[in-house]
Design a protein that fits this description.
The protein is mainly alpha-helical and 233 residues long. It has 10 helices and no strands.
Length: 233
């Protein structure tokens, strides 16, 4: 009993001593502790504001990009019998792209806008301007999908301008670097068409065969097999 009381007193004394030391430490380092706590609070608030602001920027960028897409989706030519239809205006698309690029340069939207500008110019037969936009898109893209379609756009421009060797080089390199991607069969079809125009029938057959062998689930397989038969492969 006496031993237990003595042990309890010693423990209470140690606890009291520890509390006193903690108190002394807090008093001696009060300023540092207060500054540290304030710093943690400031950092927390700053991070919260950063993530909130980033979310707001993305939201605003997506809305302005949607406005750009609305312009692209307008018809190129007025349908027969329809008067007063608002047509696509590429100069308006360029202005909206410039706004996107100026305000939201750190987002994916300017690169996406560049791709659709390239498509719009391509549809108008302005292949050099289209090529420039596809090249810019590729230069600024860090997404695989945008990388593939921007390279595809470049190759299609060269093909449309009759520069078939340049087109084949891009098709071939892109198909090799992004093998397995669901867009690749479409690019292989385009490359095979170039070989046909270049009178390189064997290479065309090999390319169509590549679609059937490597991408058996592709919607292009049936067309590829028909063209192999047509070419005598």
């Amino acid at each position: 009993m006496i031993r237990d009381k003595g042990k309890r007193k010693r423990e209470e004394s140690k606890l009291s001593e520890l509390v006193e030391r903690i108190g002394e430490f807090i008093q001696a380092h009060a300023k540092i502790i207060i500054i540290s706590v304030i710093s943690v609070i400031i950092v927390g608030v700053a991070l919260g504001w950063f993530f909130y602001h980033r979310h707001q920027v993305k939201l605003e960028a997506s809305l302005e990009y949607s406005d750009f897409v609305d312009e692209y989706m307008k018809p190129r030519k007025a349908p027969e019998g329809s008067a007063g239809v608002e047509l696509r205006d590429i100069s308006a698309m360029e202005k909206k792209y410039s706004l996107l690029d100026g305000k939201y340069n750190g987002t994916v939207y300017p690169a996406m806008a560049l791709y659709f500008l390239g498509v719009a110019y391509f549809e108008e037969g302005e292949y050099k301007k289209a090529l420039e936009r596809f090249e810019e898109c590729h230069h600024r893209s860090d997404k695989e999908l945008l990388t593939i379609v921007s390279l595809w756009g470049q190759a299609d421009c060269y093909r449309a301008m009759g520069k078939l060797e340049e087109a084949v080089e891009i098709y071939n390199q892109t198909c090799a670097e992004h093998a397995g991607h669901p867009l690749i069969p479409g690019m292989l079809m385009q490359m095979a068409k170039c070989y046909v125009r270049m009178d390189e029938t064997e290479k065309a057959v090999d390319t169509y065969s590549q679609i059937a062998i490597e991408y058996p689930q592709s919607t292009f397989v049936e067309d590829a097999e028909e063209l192999i038969t047509y070419l005598g492969g």
